[in-house]
Amino acid sequence: MECKVSWMGPGGMSFVAQTGSGHIVAMDGAPEGGGNNLAPRPMEMVLVGTGGCTAYDVVMILQKSRADIKDCSVTLKAERASEDPKVFTKVHFHFTVTGRNLNPTAVERAVNLSHDKYCSASIMLAKTAEITHTVEIVEG
């Protein structure tokens, strides 16, 4: 896996990343850090990537078990250390899984498998952060 991150130059703290799969992502800093607030912060991207990683796992696991899943979202709330390096110290994942006749045990198992075995991003975050989660199942 490879990517390239390039500074957009003087006048700000904006960066453009090109991923190995050929996609472009912009990032920017907060105004108090010299940025112009034009794009997500790099650490927000870490959190977004982690949410995408674990949601992907949960959907894949439930689909493989033939669950009638219609939607899956995860809201992440994180706390960071107050001193540098400002690593994540706590991350809470709230999963909302929608489907017909979903088995709560199967949904919980999918979330646990993601966090314990498959989601590289959340497993890395667990090295510095307390990871917790809740699951909400919506019939639909």
TrEMBL record:
<dbReference type="InterPro" id="IPR036102">
    <property type="entry name" value="OsmC/Ohrsf"/>
</dbReference>
<protein>
    <submittedName>
        <fullName>Peroxiredoxin</fullName>
    </submittedName>
</protein>
<dbReference type="InterPro" id="IPR003718">
    <property type="entry name" value="OsmC/Ohr_fam"/>
</dbReference>
<dbReference type="Pfam" id="PF02566">
    <property type="entry name" value="OsmC"/>
</dbReference>
<dbReference type="InterPro" id="IPR015946">
    <property type="entry name" value="KH_dom-like_a/b"/>
</dbReference>
